[in-house]
Amino acid sequence: MTQSFKDKAVIVLLAAAAAAFTITFIAIEEQAEIFALILFAAALVFAGAKFGFTRSIAQSLSRNERLMNVAVIAATLVVIFWFREDHFPLLMIATVMLYVIACCGLNMQFGYTGVVNFAGAAFFGVGCYTAAVLGDTSIPLLLVIILGGVIAAIVGSVLIIPVLRTRGHYAAVVTIAFGLLFRTFLEVNDTLGGPQGLGVSGMNLFGWDFNNNIEITENIELSFYLNYVILALVMVILTFVLMRRIERSWIGLNFDAVRLDETAAACFGINIKRWKIVAFTLGNFLAGTAGALYAMMLGFIAPSNFAFSDSLILVSIVLLGGMGSLWGTILAAGLVVLLPEKLQVIQEYRFLIYAVVMILILLFRPQGILPRGLRAYIPGWRG
Amino acid sequence: MDVGLLGQFVVNGMMLGMMYALVAVGFTLFFGVLDVIKFSHGDVLMVGTFAGFSTYLGMTAIGIDNAFIQLVGVLVIAVGSMAILGAIIARYLVLPLKSAPPLNTLLVTLMLGTVLREAIRLFYPDGSNPKHFPSLLPTESWSLGSFTLRADSVILLIGGLLVIIGVNVLINRTRLGLAIRAVAQDEETAKCMGINFKMIVLLTFALGSGVAAFAGVMNGLYYNEINFGMGLLLGVIGFSAAIVGGLGNIYGAILGGFLFAGLQTLGAVALPFASAYKDVFAFAVVIAIIAWRPTGLIAEKTSERV
Amino acid sequence: MKFLSKSAVSAIAFSMALTAGAHFADAKDKVKVAFIGPLTGGVSAVGVGGRNSAELAVQLRNADPNAKYEYELVAMDSECKPNVGVQVATKIAADRSIIGLVGHYCSAVAMGAVDIYHKFNLPMSVWGAVLPDVTYGNDYKEIHRVNGTMINQNDVAAKFMTEQGYKTWVIIHDTTDYGKGHDKYFSEYLTQNGGEILADFGVPADQQDFTAELTKAKQLNPDVIYFGGLTPLGVRIRAQMEKLGITAQFQGVSGIKSDSFIDGVGADLSEGVVSFLEGAPVDKLPGGQYFTEKYKAAGFAESEEAYGPFAFAAMNLILDGIEEVGPNRKKLTKYLGDIHGYESIVGEISFDDHGQNTVAAITKYVVQDGKWVVWEDSEYATGKRKLAGK
């Protein structure tokens, strides 16, 4: 058996296992089953690391990146197809995907360039409100999603001066203050619905109404959330391609240089300010687009969705996944969005348990679930 | 506006500023020694207040009803237990993550904050409802026109001031303070000079958490009401205050605390638009100040860490 | 570790006893009903109280040998956040085995969720949210509400307070949908009744310090301080009024009519505080006493709070409907639409064409000796005690 064949087999098996695990995780409802599955996954990861499987798998993956991408998309489609008639699992899958997009935006800021942003939910919220306000106008809704991103980027430009001048914790406070200010403003000011929130019209693409179930035959009726999941999947793929392209280009190189050592980067003629502005704006743009589609999917938004704690959820996805690690972000988004939902069975105890689980993960994997490797000059380049 | 009313606003604002300052001092201490932000600080304050409250209930139950003894007991238990809790957090959650990205400490302590908050809500008897914190201080008041000064407010202000002075003396005049400052300057050099790094970190966290517990009890005595969510906002504001003043500097923390209280009071009473916008105003000013002075009003003395 | 609360343990013990008993009786069909409320976060006390009350209704029904079905309660946490609310609403509505729902204390969550119930034809009754738009903002026949809206409440409140001879008010309200709604309707009715509003302060729902607002209020020297918001904030404001030496009458809304308000401020300061709650006084109705007794007997760790009886009444209404028309969503919706003069522990329930309970009697309460007392029975009404400033 050749090395390359073995690699391919590993990837296909892995994707199949991931799909099976995701389906099981989403489908089960009983308290005992959920805890058993979580323990099983933890044991698997632990054993994998202990016996060195993780490393050999990682090598197989990095040798066949294209196949891996295809396998992951195929696995996702399998999961989506499995739940084609179930509204709630599809809603959760779409939510995870939109969080992934928003967190990719934060990754551009935190992970690549080292610009901290604790107001992720605020920029996500700008996208939501854009969709709510522009959704009833004659502007095509696909354009509204892009406009959600553009307006989030424009709102973010207010913060550019303080963000450029500050670093580390000081920049954190600038964005925290902005996040709190944003939410309070929405609540106090009634022009955008005030605390009662706003209804948002659903997505409609060339006359295809996303909020109707898809009837194939008499007996087969697919959930209307399937529309959103597929659109979200397309957006995730686009975001992913964008992130990867940027990471591997000279832009990404500049980002990394700025993050690793501003002084040294400046000495080599890198315009620190320019790259920070680019990363900050682009990141907010991504969060805004995700927000716009999220609002259309939920159909209703209110200021309390965009509190400081929601920004922290986005930040914790980025950190938990490993800063700058895109695959890590996907895993972490799945965990952070789905785990509290799965813990609904223990009702009022769920946040306690959720927080404990998060602490344990961080103690055992301080670098995140899938840390981003050290950057080579041209990643993926093998001379 | 008449003078009496102005005086009332000043006293109220000072009271609020004192509490913010005490919380901010903790943030600044932790940042000084380890360059970390401990986001569970506000919730440690809340747990400290509940510890004090339980002490009061316990003392009343066994028949000690002298207010002064009760007050001493409440303070000793609250501050002592939170100092221990602070050291435990440092030992088991903060130090193990020393080599991880600093933001991870933030996330872990944030989650710890959730654990503490939810634990009090769920396991403290009827913990999800506000509790009536007793008035253990004399409640006489002096009125002069529209100005009312209460004895307990004065005592609390003086108490807070003494604690801040005490912390300052401890940091700047004692051998322990010298060690803390040495660790803050340079961990490795401090170790070479024979300073027990770990011990100093634990002591600093104990000190900061103890101060927070004091602020919590002060909060309870002043407002006569405590609840499981009281630490959340105090933590965020304390952090902002520490940053605005300049991290790693006790005077900065105090300045930041009073500044923030001043902004809120001003926003509520003296601005032309609706008072509901006062937090929008306060946070906008904070952003502006940081844009103007990127390392806080009192900048860090040390050169930039590379 | 004490992981499970007493209520959970008793619920488990109860259901075990029930399963044991079921072996002897005929096996009944299982029917699922659901509850949604805030079980974590700032207003979780009310949410857990409502959950317990709904659970009690289900337990009592299951213990009833005449019941046709065996019921299972699915309870979900909305965190009082609209996006989470929409998620759990979808989860429950999409689950066809769930026939009816008792849901929502937070109005913003209810607003986002009603569209989903309509889409999935899930009949439901609100148990606590008071924003008028929840029922009047749509024409969905699935949506009902057993409690009154904040319109009724503030209408009565404004009339009552002006009748007591008060002339001037300072309003403090939180900036959530709850507080802002109360502010809007109370201001409206107060002006109609000739009261004067000297100042109006909006405050965030997590604010601790109100001395700035209250000092300004003190300068204006109003007869009454009206507070539109929930217990935690109400406790802080009442306590801080005392600190600043404000002697005005304190008037609250349904959100503070809970024992925890009195526990929070202490018996002295709460004396004479007035509040208004939809529904007939629970202890006055025979069913109400039954509820209070059973709730105590069930051994829940948490109190039922102000809206527990509504959750209980709403759940009972839905269970009665299922008994009557069978476990079918469409039939249950129709059953609920025809409800008129239904006897419940919160008084008669009659739904109008928006599903709003129109017999929303408002009861006036005043704190007397550390207890909420119905105004008409209090020593204040007889003139033996006087409200502040009278």
Automatic annotation (TrEMBL), chain A:
Regions crossing the membrane: 9-28, 34-54, 66-83, 89-108, 115-135, 141-161, 168-186, 225-243, 277-301, 313-339, 351-370
Key words of the record: Cell membrane, Membrane, Transmembrane, Transmembrane helix
Domain of life where this protein originates: Bacteria
InterPro entries named among the record's database cross-references: ABC_transp_permease, LivM-like
Tagged with keyword Cytoplasm: no
Major site of localization recorded for this protein: membrane
Protein name according to UniProt: Branched-chain amino acid ABC transporter permease
Source taxonomy: Bacteria, Pseudomonadati, Pseudomonadota, Alphaproteobacteria, Rhodospirillales
TrEMBL record, chain C:
Protein family according to the UniProt entry: Belongs to the leucine-binding protein family.
Pfam families referenced in this protein's UniProt entry, alphabetically: Peripla_BP_6
Gene3D superfamilies for the chain: 3.40.50.2300
A GO BP annotation: amino acid transport
PANTHER family reported for this sequence: AMINO ACID BINDING PROTEIN, LEU/ILE/VAL-BINDING ABC TRANSPORTER SUBUNIT
Alphabetical keyword list: Amino-acid transport, Signal, Transport
UniProt domain Leucine-binding protein: residue ranges: 30-362
Protein name per its UniProtKB record: Branched-chain amino acid ABC transporter substrate-binding protein
Secretion signal, residue range per the UniProt entry: 1-22
